[in-house]
Specification:
TIM Barrel; 8-stranded parallel beta barrel; 46% helix; 20% strand
């Protein structure tokens, strides 16, 4: 099955996000993400307004990278209309468990965003806590060149049992590196929302997934 395409909207306002999410763009992307930058600018209200804009059927992620106050924050985003939200890898086990419990109670999902220091032993512990979806991430602040070692790390996470999404400065070339790897979703931000023709770019990224 082709991986999903997720658009990460790290823009400064809901107004901008809605302008990007035309009907044509919405036809091309599988998942819409209220990005961390948008949530910082507009709060949980951004999730509510994006839900109204995209309708009930499209999957919506609130990428807040929760570190603490996890139950409260997760319920804030789920109640605003998110299907998934994220905890950062640096969050402690108590926070992860609280966010996971909140998600499970609402039949929603939680994703761990990998940043900074982590290893496979830690990833196994999170899996045992009941978190089964992880985002393999290279930071926006870096200048990472995707390579074969990244693909191997993604495979190692999949061997633990995780559904793995991949993100951070993705383009067609980096997506092609994952040929044959059952990635859950490729998450693209700037490649899509900075493009003059976001729907066309989304089609090109999906084509890169099929090759
Ligand atoms: C930053 C994020 C981004 O939303 C995600 O990595 C996509 O970003 P881009 O494609 O613009 O690098 O989570 O923290």
């Amino acid at each position: 099955m082709r991986p999903k395409l997720q658009i990460a909207l790290d823009v400064g306002s809901v107004r901008e996000a809605k302008q990007i999410l035309t009907e044509e763009v919405l036809r091309e992307v599988d998942i819409v993400e209220a990005g961390t930058l948008l949530l910082a600018a507009e709060g949980a209200r951004a999730v509510k307004e994006l839900r109204e804009h995209i309708g009930a059927q499209k999957t919506l992620v609130a990428d807040f990278k929760i570190a603490d106050g996890a139950g409260v924050l997760a319920s804030m985003f789920f109640d605003a209309g998110a299907d998934l939200t994220t905890v950062i890898a640096a969050a402690g086990p108590d926070s992860m468990k609280k966010a996971q419990k909140t998600a499970a109670e609402r039949k929603k999902e939680l994703q761990i965003e990998l940043y900074g220091r982590w290893d496979l032993e830690l990833a196994k512990e999170w899996y045992q806590l009941g978190l089964h979806h992880i985002i393999f991430h290279h930071a926006r602040d870096g200048a990472h060149c995707w390579n074969a070692a990244d693909v191997e790390q993604v495979r190692s996470l999949q061997k633990i049992g995780y559904q793995v999404s991949v993100t951070g400065g993705l383009d067609k070339e980096s997506i092609r590196l994952f040929k044959g790897v059952p990635v859950f979703a490729f998450i693209a931000g700037r490649a899509l929302y900075k493009s003059a023709e976001a729907a066309g770019e989304a089609r090109a990224l999906k084509k890169a997934m099929d090759i």
